Amino acid sequence: MYVKICGLREPGHVTAAVEAGADAVGFVLTRSPRRITPALARELAAAVPPHVLTVAVFAGETPDEMRAAALEAGVRAVQLHGDHPREDFAALRDLGLTLVRAGSASADPRCGAFGEDLLIVDAPRPGSGEPWDWAAVRGRTTGQWMLAGGLDPANVAEAVDAARPWGVDVSSGVETAPGVKDAGLIREFVAAARAAAPAR
Ligand SMILES: O=C(O)c1ccccc1NCC(=O)[C@H](O)[C@H](O)COP(=O)(O)O
């Protein structure tokens, strides 16, 4: 089970995620209570070992804006949330970074359909912490895809059982308030996700 912890803003929480065994950590570089600057993302990413993917999260920026911010942040992946067209993924391909497409269950459920390497199937409002009908995507998705949207340490096993994803992504569920991460919840989430049933 691939595990991504998103919306990190502090070194201690990045360390907690890495030490807990997360596979990817996300830095939100778009409008959000979790937004940080590319310069801070660079500082945080510099402390992440190479086996953990560092991801810059965007929603609605132009390819030129995403390119500049991702290069400044020094991340290894970019995540495009929402209605970005195929052309945006194509425009970023030459960066040599992992491309992540994220959208709701009504978007194309096939990983790779827009030229991306990883897919996230999320709630209609990203970062809202709102659970949705996770079972609705079961069997509809293909490839390496993560389930997101309202996951937390207590419900991730149920969500995995309902949707059978390749991985999971969380933000609000490891926070005590919007944008305020909690190291204990991060550790609990990674452990619970790892213990959940693997994709079939
Ligand atoms: O986290 C945000 O505030 C955010 C804002 C705009 C676009 C994307 C955002 N987050 C992206 C993520 O990958 C979140 O982990 C995902 O939406 C799940 O969020 P949550 O339901 O809070 O766990």
TrEMBL record:
<dbReference type="InterPro" id="IPR013785">
    <property type="entry name" value="Aldolase_TIM"/>
</dbReference>
<keyword id="KW-0057">Aromatic amino acid biosynthesis</keyword>
<dbReference type="InterPro" id="IPR044643">
    <property type="entry name" value="TrpF_fam"/>
</dbReference>
<protein>
    <recommendedName>
        <fullName>N-(5'-phosphoribosyl)anthranilate isomerase</fullName>
        <ecNumber>5.3.1.24</ecNumber>
    </recommendedName>
</protein>
<comment type="similarity">
    <text>Belongs to the TrpF family.</text>
</comment>
<dbReference type="InterPro" id="IPR011060">
    <property type="entry name" value="RibuloseP-bd_barrel"/>
</dbReference>
<keyword id="KW-0028">Amino-acid biosynthesis</keyword>
<dbReference type="GO" id="GO:0004640">
    <property type="term" value="F:phosphoribosylanthranilate isomerase activity"/>
</dbReference>
<dbReference type="Pfam" id="PF00697">
    <property type="entry name" value="PRAI"/>
</dbReference>
<keyword id="KW-0822">Tryptophan biosynthesis</keyword>
<comment type="pathway">
    <text>Amino-acid biosynthesis; L-tryptophan biosynthesis; L-tryptophan from chorismate: step 3/5.</text>
</comment>
<dbReference type="InterPro" id="IPR001240">
    <property type="entry name" value="PRAI_dom"/>
</dbReference>
<keyword id="KW-0413">Isomerase</keyword>
<feature type="domain" description="N-(5'phosphoribosyl) anthranilate isomerase (PRAI)">
    <location>
        <begin position="3"/>
        <end position="191"/>
    </location>
</feature>
<dbReference type="GO" id="GO:0000162">
    <property type="term" value="P:L-tryptophan biosynthetic process"/>
</dbReference>
